[in-house]
């Protein structure tokens, strides 16, 4: 059985120097020089995972180019963490906070041992399928990487010219807050600066303020809006974004250099625009940390590919009290027609109490089945909603 709840967890670690606080650093070390190593990867729910070992024990690491440094959570299974102070962090939902920073124990991925790696520590009530995040500092330190999900492998090297013979579509990136931003084109004659973020499972999300600027200038942009509704759907490390207007987009094409992704369903967010890990469903990616480019290598011939990804119709977010609530819902969706509304707090599913967002995440909503939801509405009344998955 597979849960098909639509929710998003976007993570970015925007680090800022601060007096008497830990600042961004790549002072960690690698055990190898002049090396090439092929490492098996696992792909699940459009996320990329590698197995690393710490003191001989295996752990699951998520490769997240949207994080400037590593990330762990306060229930992480590691021992031997060394506190380094604090850092100001801004998450994907645009929320900022001061969080702790630690040095991880020495770990090994493939043949490469990493010593002195730094990670921010977050408190989280969300269920996660990994033990730690490895951020873009791995490449800023001086590595090149090819991520090939079709063959389930990642090639790491410190040879800056190793991938020069690869054919594809390259975009140079700019480092902002130590993570890579590229220029893509969601509409004809319009460009958007987007974070290349393998920690985001969605192919493309667009910053709402930037979208509004484009929409003000062009009827062509407005013609690709499927719906506008009030709600929130992005969940960061610190919390969910505030309620605002969300635009659901049906893009004719999304261009990466001269390559086009056709018929792309996308949404707006209050956080930064993002190109996510779904890009890797359509081709491999080479990241060159020396020359600061990302090259897309399509799995198919030609300069375009059909996407037609499923549009999101209902998204759930945690409330400030930790309950699960409907963040956004499309009026024409089956869930809306069944009586579900934005702001409804989930009290139980099929008679099982749901007291936290984690319990909601873990409940097996099953494709093809009907489920009975008991909710508390924004109007202050209880109601029962029967949805089908």
How would you portray this structure in words?
The chain is mainly β. The protein has 5 helices and 34 strands. The chain has helices at 137-140, 208-217, 219-222, 334-337, 357-362; strands at 8-9, 29-30, 36-40, 42-44, 47-54, 57-63, 70-73, 82-90, 96-103, 107-109, 112-115, 118-122, 132-134, 144-148, 153-157, 169-172, 174-176, 179-187, 190-197, 204-207, 225-231, 234-235, 244-256, 259-269, 274-276, 283-288, 293-298, 304-306, 314-318, 324-329, 345-349, 352-353, 370-376, 382-388. The strands form 7 sheets. Strands 17, 18, 19, 20, 21, 23, 24, 25 and 28 form a 9-stranded mixed β-sheet that branches. A hairpin with a 5-residue loop joins strand 33 and strand 34. The longest helix has 10 residues, at 208-217. The protein is globular, with a radius of gyration of 21 Å.
């Amino acid at each position: 059985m597979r849960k098909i709840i639509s929710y998003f967890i976007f993570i970015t670690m925007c680090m800022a120097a601060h007096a008497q606080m830990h600042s961004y650093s790549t002072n960690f070390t690698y055990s190898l020089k002049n090396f090439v190593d092929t490492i098996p990867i696992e792909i699940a729910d459009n996320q990329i995972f590698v197995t690393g070992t710490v003191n001989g024990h295996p752990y699951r690491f998520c490769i997240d180019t949207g994080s400037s440094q590593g990330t762990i959570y306060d229930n992480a299974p590691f021992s031997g963490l060394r506190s380094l102070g604090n850092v100001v962090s801004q998450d994907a939902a645009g929320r900022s906070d001061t969080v702790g920073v630690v040095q991880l124990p020495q770990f090994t991925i493939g043949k490469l041992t990493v010593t002195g790696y730094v990670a921010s520590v977050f408190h989280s009530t969300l269920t996660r399928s990994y033990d730690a995040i490895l951020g873009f500092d791995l490449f800023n330190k001086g590595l090149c990487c090819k991520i090939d999900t079709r063959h389930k492998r990642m090639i790491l090297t410190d040879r800056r010219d190793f991938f020069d013979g690869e054919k594809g579509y390259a975009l140079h990136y700019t480092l902002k807050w130590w993570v890579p931003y590229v220029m893509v084109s969601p509409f004809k004659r319009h460009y958007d600066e987007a974070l290349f973020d393998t920690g985001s499972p969605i192919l493309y999300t667009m910053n709402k303020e930037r979208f509004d600027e484009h929409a003000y200038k062009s009827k062509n942009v407005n013609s690709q809006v499927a719906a506008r509704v009030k709600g929130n759907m992005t969940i960061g490390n610190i919390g969910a974004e505030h309620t605002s207007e969300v635009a659901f987009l049906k893009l004719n094409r999304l261009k990466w250099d001269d390559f086009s992704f056709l018929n792309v369903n996308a949404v707006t967010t209050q956080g930064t625009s993002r190109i996510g890990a779904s890009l890797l469903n359509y081709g491999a990616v080479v990241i060159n940390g020396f020359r600061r480019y990302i090259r897309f290598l399509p799995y198919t011939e030609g300069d375009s590919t059909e996407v037609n990804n499923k549009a999101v119709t209902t998204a759930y977010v945690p409330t400030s009290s930790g309950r699960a609530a409907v963040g956004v819902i499309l009026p024409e969706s089956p869930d809306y027609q069944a009586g579900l509304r934005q702001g409804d707090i989930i009290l139980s599913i099929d008679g099982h109490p749901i007291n936290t967002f984690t319990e909601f995440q873990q409940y097996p909503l099953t494709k093809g089945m009907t489920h009975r939801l008991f909710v508390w509405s924004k109007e202050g009344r209880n109601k029962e909603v029967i949805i089908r998955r």
